[in-house]
Amino acid sequence: MIAPAAVFDRNRLNFSWLLRLRWSSIAGQIATILGVQWLVGVDVPGAALALVIGVELASNLACALWFRRQPEVHEWHLAAVMALDVALLTVLLYFTGGPFNPFSFLYLVQIALAAVVLHALWTWTLVALSFSAFGTLLLDHRALHLSQGQHEKGMWVALGVASAFIVHFLLRVTGDLAERERELGLARTTAARQERMASLATMAAGAAHELATPLGTIALVAKELERQLQGAAPQSPDGQLDDQLDDIRLIREQVARCRLILDQMASGAGESAGEGLESLALEELLARATRNVRPAPAVELRLAGDSAGTTLRIPPQAVEQALRSVITNAQDASPPDRPVELHAEQTGGVVRVRVRDRGRGMVPEVAARAGEPFFTTKAPGSGMGLGLFLTRAVVEKLGGVLDIRSAVGVGTVVDLTLPTGELPPVVGR
């Protein structure tokens, strides 16, 4: 079921195109009347036709002004304007030969448009109105004296005009509707991702709360064991205690890693609790994001010269963690001797940060799933598949875009585009 907001949005799109079509129709009618009267030499009632065209101009101007001020457009608004067009066309035809006017084809334009933009009831209503209007013209009309050749040429021109109007309008409207459906699909995808993010954050918050105590206990006991073994190490020449110390240190490292993962998951797509928007220089953001990364492979930072003084309005810790996650993924994918490229520039009110690795790349099927929660190509125990998912959530919540491109044998490029100013979060419409 289409939401009411989407229906109104579609109606506004259709109404805007109907206004444009009416302007084109008025211009075509004026050109046709002048051409018939001055070039072909056919006598037409100019005053009556000018009055009808004046009504068309005034009505379309009034519709355009109303459209700018009216937030919602209903289907009956479209039907009313199209019914007015049928009536005005009937009056024009009445003064110019009635059903024998070659341009009586234009009734079909209104019917074709109604079939595209209106539901069945309104469409059949327009059909009935057009049928009745044409029948009225059969009973009474002003004769238009045309020769056989003039009538045939007029029918040929009228068919071309009617066909051009129908094809042009249908192609533009269906194209715009398809684009709007694509935008709605993206909005639904974003909303679904935010819902998954909220569920993940809720789950992680509960897990962090429940696991905090046992993890803390394990860390405390491991530390005490390490301290005791360090005191006994000089008395154990066989080196067995050194192996035990290594095991205990490994336990403490893994406990710390578990707590870090839980904190990252519970932070709500990387946002620290209570963290608000702050002004942060682009250079400082990049310095923070690369501060604690591994020394190999190296990270080559390039900042465009005109971007040095750029300031962003962001939640610093969230964006820092998101960017560091992308850099770490690039280091994991790259050979130790191939540096990771980190390039940043400011253009047109946005900052683009590009992270390029020199790894093996991903096949299209894998690249399409990159960023899904809990999807990872790393070895078991090396990652949970949350880094890109959380990064995308942070970027999109700030009104930005995360783009991933990969080619097998070449590597992967991740582009993060962030607005420099404070923007509202992106939500589903």
Architecture overview:
By secondary structure, the protein is an alpha+beta fold. It folds into three domains: 143 residues, no CATH class; 66 residues; 142 residues, 2-Layer Sandwich (Heat Shock Protein 90). Helices cover 63% and strands 10% of the residues. It has a five-stranded mixed β-sheet with strand order 2-4-5-7-6. Strands 1-3 form a two-stranded antiparallel sheet. Helix 4 packs parallel to helix 6. The longest helix has 85 residues. It is elongated. The two termini are 14 Å apart.
| Spatial strand arrangement across the major sheet | 2-4-5-7-6
Approximately how much helix is present in the residues? 55-70%
Strand content: 5-15%
Tally of distinct domains: 3
Q: How much is the average pLDDT? A: 79
* Element-level helix/strand string: HHHHHHHEHEEHEEHHEE
Major sheet summary line: 5 strands, mixed
Assembly classification: single chain
Question: What is the tally of beta strands?
Answer: 7
Specify Rg, calculated over alpha carbons: 35 Å
Inertia-based shape: elongated
